[in-house]
């Protein structure tokens, strides 16, 4: 992690153009301190924006401390009856996005984008987004990312779904385990113990999985119900897998809702399953599928290519829904493309349009036999014989992690290319990307 970049980004002033546009409406854009009481008012605004109830005093107290890693900005309306509560909120932090080849690039992760219903439709969200993206670009952050409440909000800024997620609903009575019988043991552990192990395990796996970012500590607190105002503490169970050498290689967190009409068909919901190797993956899924008194296992934020499907003797026992999940926006084409690795050598020219201008241009990508990419911003002197792809930055962002192929986007009419198969082969990656949480 580039701690200097993260710290500089956290402390950077707000974008002047965005502040100016909002000032023309009598509104004030400013940074919000990660300390009470400013952070409290900001949190109240976020909860209101997401239609949540007023936060409890306990949540407010815990929140200011837990949110220190986030750069928070607010838009304030001095003319309103509660001028201390912002009418617009936006949080972001520089983190690491795993990209193909076991590498990472710095990414501005964005969350808590809200505008009070009384102030919507006035360009407040646009001003905040465009301003914060300019701050990221000015500091050399090559990529931005977010998870979304509605999939239609962010395409206009160049974001695209670059990591799909699947939600699984498994009829466990029908599924029957057909996966391997692995050595090692499976045991219940306390939520405290799981809280201690899970971040380490996730840190271990995220390097191999394009689309992941480090999971902030406050999210682990929530998953393991360690936050002081957990809604129904005690519902979550934790189970770990240890290999024959006694090393813990996986943990699953789940909760169960009893089916009072039929006690043999209770419903289990997985909140996190982190498996550092294939034995841990098989052992934990087998544990879930074979649990007595459970009729349905539901899990979400899984990848589009789970080995689990091939561990069920009846694949139709699993109903799998595919959704858009991690939205990515390339801000700096050269740094982003050079940051990942390529499965095969080759070259392609990308003629990129960008609604915000940051990535516009003609870029030549050349990947060598070691999988390293070099990008020339002049597009190369002569691209003869090299696939040329004309596309928007959203489409390049969609294909960046290998989630969708350029030939699929060409077939969908989203890109134009002289050689769809050639261009697609270059950006393809062997592993399906995944992001195992929302932020
Ligand atoms: C989504 C939200 C932040 C938009 O705020 P806003 O200040 O009203 O948005 P703006 O006025 O700046 O509009 C910017 C653009 O987004 C569009 N837009 C606004 N809300 C939208 C929505 N819900 N879905 C799709 N597009 C939307 C506008 O039409 C406008 O388009 P244009 O500039 O291309 O013409 C606001 O409606 C909100 O807080 N919603 C509830 C919380 C939420 O869902 N936040 C998103 C979390 S991922």
Q: Could you please describe the fold and organization of this structure?
A:
The protein has 439 residues and is α+β, with helices and mostly antiparallel strands. The chain is 28% helix and 30% strand. The chain is built from 13 helices and 17 strands. It has helices at residues 3-11, 16-23, 38-49, 57-66, 124-138, 172-175, 191-206, 217-223, 278-289, 333-339, 393-400, 406-411, 420-427; strands at 28-32, 71-76, 88-99, 103-115, 143-147, 160-171, 185-189, 237-242, 248-257, 266-275, 294-302, 318-330, 346-353, 361-367, 373-376, 388-392, 416-417. A twelve-stranded mixed beta sheet has the order 1-2-3-4-5-12-6-11-10-9-8-7, sandwiched between helices. Helix 2 (16-23) packs antiparallel against helix 5 (124-138) and helix 3 crosses helix 4. The longest helix has 16 residues, at 191-206. It is globular and about 60 Å long. It starts with a helix and ends in a 12-residue tail after the last helix. The mean pLDDT is 95.
Quick summary:
The chain has about 450 residues and is α+β, with helices and mostly antiparallel strands. It has 13 helices and 17 strands.
Q: Beta-sheet strand percentage?
A: 25-35%
Low-confidence stretches: none
Mean pLDDT: 95
Rg, alpha carbons = 23 Å
